[in-house]
Amino acid sequence: MPTYIVLLGPPGAGKGTQAQILAKSTNLAHVSSGDLFRENLKNQTELGKLAKSFMDKGELVPDDVTIKMIRDRISRPDCEAGAILDGFPRTPAQATALERMLLDFKGEVNLVPYITAAENILVERASGRWTCRAHGHIYHEKFNPPKQAGVCDVDGSEVYQRDDDKVETVAKRIRVYLEQTMPLVDYYRKAGKLAEIDGTQAVEQVTKQMLAALKK
Ligand code: AMP
């Protein structure tokens, strides 16, 4: 049976960083809805242009196109063993759609690590974040800068600040998270799938707790 892990938490909590580490150590595919939108934008697709109009405002891209994009992505061969879903689902409708589509793959959501942090920390983290152009590797100007300024350690591509990582947009994204995504915390807690993890700890510590929850 395939394994599906949903990473839940506000923007800046460390979902992306942890998803990249977890994907390596579990050999599961890393599926980031935000990365998929940014890839579409880079390739100037219709979906990319549509997504940009919402992303720039810190709002969510409509459910129907987001759900379709994820369905297409997890149907690909590299997701046969399952996936680490980073940034999806973000609304109750997306969570229901996910459940339905995973039935088609004879799987279900196995674990939901919920990474938390206080709002001031989230803003500091997201607004200091730098992202690599080629593969979305994540850095922080203060806490985790690349070895050479402006260059990704892993693939040598340029690192840049996402438009939606500006302080004002980050604040809006946190509000949107509280309104639209928070209900999923209760949803997965009731389903007995939630593993709450303090995201203010060191990156290694968060990873350790996620792996321990996964073993259980
Ligand atoms: P992220 O990279 O996860 O921070 O996502 C960046 C932006 O992409 C979000 O602020 C949304 O505009 C959009 N986005 C990412 N995932 C979703 C989703 N599951 N549903 C709707 N919009 C999303």
Tag the structure with descriptive keywords.
9 helices, binds adenosine monophosphate, five-stranded parallel sheet, 47% helix, alpha/beta, 8 strands, Rossmann fold
Set out the fold topology.
Elements: E1 3-7, H1 15-26, E2 29-32, H2 33-42, H3 46-55, H4 63-74, E3 82-86, H5 92-104, E4 109-116, H6 119-127, E5 129-132, E6 138-140, E7 159-160, H7 167-181, H8 183-190, E8 194-198, H9 203-215
Parallel strand pairs: 1-3, 1-4, 2-3, 4-8
Antiparallel strand pairs: 5-6, 5-7
Helix pairs in contact: 1-9, 2-3, 4-5, 6-7
This protein binds adenosine monophosphate.
Adenosine monophosphate binds at residues 11, 33-34, 37, 54-55, 58-61, 66, 87-88, 90, 94, 164, 173.
Explain how this protein is built.
This protein has helices at residues 15-26, 33-42, 46-55, 63-74, 92-104, 119-127, 167-181, 183-190, 203-215, and strands at 3-7, 29-32, 82-86, 109-116, 129-132, 138-140, 159-160, 194-198. The chain is of the alpha/beta class and 216 residues long. The protein has 9 helices and 8 strands. The chain is 47% helix and 17% strand. The protein has one domain (3-117, 172-215): Rossmann fold. The chain starts with a strand and ends with a helix. The strands form 2 sheets. The protein has a 5-stranded parallel beta sheet, with helices on both faces. A 3-stranded antiparallel beta sheet has the order 6-5-7. 36% of the residues are buried. It is globular, with a radius of gyration of 16 Å. Adenosine monophosphate is lined by residues 11, 33-34, 37, 54-55, 58-61, 66, 87-88, 90, 94, 164, 173. Adenosine monophosphate (AMP) binds next to helix 2 and helix 3.
